Amino acid sequence: MKKILAVFCALALSACFFGESFSDVNNCLDDFAAGLNKSLPNAASQQNVYASAWIGKLVPSAPAHFALGLEGGVVKLDTKPLSRLAGVFGVGKLPDSFIYPTITANARIGGLFLPFDLGFSCMYMDFSNLKSVCDGFGIQFFNIGGDMRWAILKGEGAAPQVSVGAGYYYIGGKVSLDKDGLSAGIDYSTHTLFGQVQVSKTLLFFTPYIGFRGIFSKSAADWKWSITSERKAAAASYVGAETSGKGSAKNDWTGNFIPQIYGGFGFNFGFFALNLAGSFDFAHSIWGADMSLRFQI
Questions:
Q1: For residues 100 and 43, is the Cβ–Cβ distance under 8 A?
Q2: pLDDT (tens digit, 9 = 90+) per residue, 46-82?
Q3: Which residue in 7, 44, 90, 130 has its CB near the most CB atoms, within 10 A?
Q4: Which helix (H) or strand (E) holds 124?
Q5: Does this model's pTM top 0.90?
């Protein structure tokens, strides 16, 4: 998945630099940044998803309920602007959409005496020079956050588990290319707040679930590029006089509400749990998915 991201970004950034004009280069990076701002809140909200709407109490309980695991997820990113430019500049055909990966380490602990649980997740990756893709190409990725869920129904008897919850997640990172007189970078960050309701029911070792989230986010993607005079002279397709540019795409908390449905299936195998989940953003028609494997009691 990391290589898919690296290949895509390398081609996308290369396409931007060999645009027909200064505006073409800026518009390419600006459109890509705006697409990131739409997709990142979905990536953030799909962290630490559990099939059970509530994992149980830590104390008093026998056994105490907690979980540790790894989670890998994907979310759809619209890349039509870059695909259009890639065709014009003859660097090959790019897809109209791209799968953006998220990878996290997570934990969840049951509540003390009361019917709630707390979840935490984080991950940091720094590939400053992915020579296997392109010398000078790099990716940095960081996320951290948590959530709390309160059980309204505990799933006793034939009743399902029903919980309400809220959470905060931060995702930040950078995509960069610095090679042969070309330099470009996009620094992105997203703060995500959400509330959710989830319903689940465990049937032997199988737990189907479904939920709904209301998401508010604040995003920023700042980009910049520059070329040396030697690179400009060699770039026959670039007709602009400028050798650098910068800009940003930003979304504020206000007017940026995302309704999202999510759901999936959980499978329990003794002390281990496998969870498969998907989500859909109704505001931007963006889907996401994740898979997690956990040690769980």
A1: yes
A2: 888 999 999 998 888 877 789 999 887 665 666 666 5
A3: 44
A4: strand 116-127
A5: no
